[in-house]
Amino acid sequence: MTNGENQKTGSKKQANKQKKSTTEPLSNCPFHDSANNVNADDNTRPLESGIHQDFNDEMSYGDYLRLEQVLSAQQPLTSEHDEMLFIIIHQTSELWLKLAGHELQSAIGFIQAENFGPAFKVIARVKQIFMQLTQSWNILATLTPSDYLKFRDDLGRSSGFQSCGYRKLEFLLGNKNAAMLNVHQANSSAYQELSNLLRKNSLYDEVIIALTKAGFPIDNTLLQRDVSQAYQRNDSVLDAWLSVYRKPEQYFELYELAEKLVDIEDAFQQWRFKHMYTVQRIIGYKKGTGGSSGVGFLKKALDISFFPELFEVRTHL
Ligand code: HEM
């Protein structure tokens, strides 16, 4: 240690002493941990001796999360500043969509097994994921029409319409449409994954089976329908929900399940609406890069309900 440094440490000690007397009451503060070395003098936090620092032979945070891959996947096609925002908002959305799909698949399994508690837990998580996704439109809305036009042509015909993660969610929730597979023909694994889901029971199909298990008479034609077709409202399902909503204490689990489904549809519709509205704000009534009419096409999706009877039932109560 040099003399200069000695002097510095000496004066630091003295300053600390003086400080101690004036800041005494802080030691009683639960948020001020005097043992954890926060160095109030230079506003730094020294490393604690227990902190692991050598990751030559150990798995680090970045290794576990494959951050090298994740953080090198942002490859703008132009030198436009805002393209990075555009890429990151899409990539993060895709990750959240992936998690929502993962959770919905487990919700379907829990409902099949009539294990409602864990199903409620994951469905509640899906709702929060959608709220998070909806919030992200506000970041995208900082992209002005002129900023976006600087790189829009470079996107070619790519569009969120080709998002396999999003289509998976629509199918898992019951908005089946075989024509949506067409844009995935060039990607065999996405195509396969979606065609499998198209033919499987959706979350709502499983909920309707749960209604039959609880003793409600559901039309056989509905129970034996081709599940790859879009779900259409049915009187026997409406009647079952009417009984549930009229006697919530008697059918409490189904009642709670119904409200959780309404939560998901509500959150999903908010995402659809904010997408449409942000698109309108950024490109007006231009056609989409994916070839649709744009805002008009997105607006039509707002009329699609995953659980139509759950909204209809409210009118009849
Ligand atoms: C400047 C930003 C955006 C614009 C202008 C835009 C525009 C559009 C348009 C016009 C469509 C209709 C299909 C087409 O013709 O392309 C569409 C569909 C879609 N976009 Fe976006 N979008 C934007 C951002 C996003 C983001 C951040 C996501 C997040 C994943 C996203 C996901 C989707 C999805 C999933 C669809 C299909 C919706 C459906 O089938 O109803 N978009 N977008």
TrEMBL record:
Task: Give any Pfam family that matches.
Answer: Trp_dioxygenase
Question: Basic residues composition bias: which ranges?
Answer: 10-20
Q: Which UniProt keywords apply?
A: Dioxygenase, Heme, Iron, Metal-binding, Oxidoreductase, Tryptophan catabolism
Q: What is its EC number?
A: 1.13.11.11
- Residues engaged in binding heme: 275
Q: How is the cofactor bound?
A: Binds 1 heme group per subunit.
The cofactor required is: heme
Catalytic activity of the protein = L-tryptophan + O2 = N-formyl-L-kynurenine
Q: What does the sequence similarity comment in the record state about its family? A: Belongs to the tryptophan 2,3-dioxygenase family.
Function of the protein = Heme-dependent dioxygenase that catalyzes the oxidative cleavage of the L-tryptophan (L-Trp) pyrrole ring and converts L-tryptophan to N-formyl-L-kynurenine. Catalyzes the oxidative cleavage of the indole moiety.
- Quaternary arrangement and interactors, per the entry? Homotetramer.
What's the name of the protein?
A: Tryptophan 2,3-dioxygenase
Q: Which organism is it from?
A: Colwellia chukchiensis
